[in-house]
Glutamine synthetase
Amino acid sequence: MSDALTQHNTEFDLFITDLNGNLRGKRIPASGLKHVMEEGVKLPRSVIGFDNWGDDVLDNGLVFETGDSDGICFPVHSAPIPVPWAETPRAQLLAMMYDATDGSPFYPDPRQLLCSIVARYKEKGWTPVVATELEFYLLDGESEAKRRPTQPVVNEGNGRRLSMTDCYSIEEMDGLESFFAEVRKDCEVQGIPADTIVSELGPGQFEINMKHTANAVEAADHAIMFKRLIKGVARRHDFGATFMAKPYPRKSGSGFHVHFSLLDEQGNNVFNDGTDEGSSLLQNAVAGLLAHMADCMLVFAPHMNSYRRFQNGAHAPTYASWGYENRTVAVRIPESDEDARRIEHRVAGADANPYLVLAVVLAAALHGLEAELTPPEPITGDAYAAAEDYEPLPNRWELATESFLESGFLNEYLGPEFVRVFGAAKLQEQQKIYGRISDVEYEAYL
């Protein structure tokens, strides 16, 4: 790949993922590839803790207190990965940040955090097997320029705009055949294990599922790269694409669901005991997820808009609930073959950082396993009407921030530096947004 880069005089992007899930890095000429692979690239450590607009967060302890010192970023891939949708030949390298002085992991880096949780599973002889499901909206091409969802895309097959709900519609996907064919092709080029494509509840809303993998960190890599891919391919087709949690106030929100099971050192699924209910270890993991769901809500719903998803009857959970084959709960145990016995975590929005979502999901489950926690009775039927005995999830951004900052679990399992840095970013974002007066306030009160 390095020879190909040099021959075609191309560039490559090296980037890390900040705590908001935004990509931060540098565009580097092909001639610099060997140096980058051997020596890494320096970036300020404070980049990890930027707010959502890319501003320094002065209260996170990484800026003036350290002299805004550098970390060192090393690629996680052995060779650059093509960017097929780029107008000029280009490649990309996903990287991870380390301390520049002693080479130790820099743990506010969300990928490093997920690596540390997976390592704790390995110490116990367990391997998480993970699959992700990401929902997104395709928008008219004007949406990006206007920075708001003007209208959905046009079905190229029949010329009609996708303005109505048409869940599981094959015709909707037929009308966007060239777009999805390019997505499928580019996923194969980049090694992203895309599986099924589904038309979802919103107009122009789709979901693409990933195949399961026994490498949870790689699963998060794929999700990050997939988000970039969808937006890049959409631009080539003069579309917009968004993973915003709730782009339309009265249409379906976009979620990020996580399926996971656990293998022992012999390759056996420890969530399976031959019964439909699953093993005691599955019950322990569910209990851990429920116990810490409110503390982790800021990770699952990191932005102001994120909380618009959580409405009764909207297929987004409002209580820390669980059940078997029930899509109204937060933690669902799908009907499956015994070997595929697994947990589906249904809380996170598509706007969440995949590394952090997987890190806190796996950490909460691990605590349940280690402490041998027991879950309450599973819910049968409508969880929105039957979840009074379960803990309600924080339904506002500032409430979720308070729960996050006060969480002993997150301080223990993901570390106080992460809690401080991510919490400070969210507090700064809230100050910025709440410091603005909206159009509706002028219309109503002026």
